[in-house]
Amino acid sequence: MTVAPSSRPQRSALGLLVLWQLYQQPMHVYRMQKLFEAEGKDRIVNVRSRASLYQTIERLQRHGLVEVAETIRQEGYPDRVVYGITDAGRDAAQAWLRDMLSETGGEYPEFIVALSMLFGLPVDEARAQLELRAERVDAQLADSRQALEAIPPELPRLFVLEEEYRAAMLETELTWLRNLIEDLRSGRITWSEESLRRAAEMFLPGDEEEQAR
After folding, report:
1. What pLDDT is stored for residue 75 in this prediction?
2. Helix 13-24 crosses helix 29-38 at what angle (to 10 degrees)?
3. Continuous segment of H or E residues that includes residue 69
4. What's the whole-model pTM score?
5. Exposure of 189 by Cβ count < 10 A (0-12 exposed, 13-18 middle, 19+ buried)?
6. Does residue 50 contact residue 69 with C-beta atoms inside 8 Å?
7. Among 65, 85, 80, 71, which residue's Cα sits nearest to residue 25?
8. In whole angstroms, what is the distance from residue 110 CA to residue 121 CA?
9. Using 50, 70 and 90 to split pLDDT, how confident is the model at 3?
């Protein structure tokens, strides 16, 4: 029986993956997790935590997008719950997919926030942290390229688009990071308490300005 939705569900990347996996056929969480890993979805979304999968399914179930299809009982083993998608879940999966493909807002990555506060560290320390990030991005890019090279030529490109995109984004970020690191090393970008204070006085509204509004 489909549970009546309690409110409009908020979309999520893991929620979309779960809905589309159940779109194909009902399954239990262990099977779902293994399929995600076999399809490489663990490279783009955190699906390694079974607890996260259960939490996502429970949320989808509360909103009437997922339901219990059957419970498999075997003597000597814990009950295994098989989940299925509802009609509302099918509609939501398609709507979320359309939105995620076309929209560009709504995400606030931590790295962008950290960049906006780069001056919170001394210049040399900020550069050192960015160099560490660049090393990690470089390693991720090498891993992504290796994964692409290992893909069987018979596999249609349709099923590797996410890895192509991941590699392209990593390559772009690495180039940008190396340019920024060089600007910091050469002194083309720098700061001090005095320069930060001057910038605040020039570009940020003062108390008097706020009170006048």
Report:
1. 80
2. 100
3. strand 66-72
4. 0.81
5. middle
6. no
7. 85
8. 16
9. very low
Q: Where are the domains of the chain?
A: 13-102, 110-204
Domain 13-102 grouped into CATH 1.10.10.10: yes
**pLDDT tens track for 94-116:** 999 999 889 887 677 889 989 99
Residue whose structure tokens are 């990347």: 13
- At 208 the pLDDT is 60
CA-based nearest residue to 67, from 26, 8, 9, 24: 26
Tokens 């719950």 appear where?
Answer: 81
What are the helix and strand counts (H, E) for the chain? 9, 2
Q: Which residues pair with 68 in a beta bridge?
A: 83
C-beta of residue 80 within 8 angstroms of C-beta of residue 71: yes
Q: Token match 């509609």: residue?
A: 91
What are the tens digits of pLDDT across the range 159-207?
A: 999 999 999 999 999 999 999 999 999 999 999 999 999 999 998 887 6
Q: Helix, strand, coil proportions of the chain in percent (round to 5)?
A: 65, 5, 30
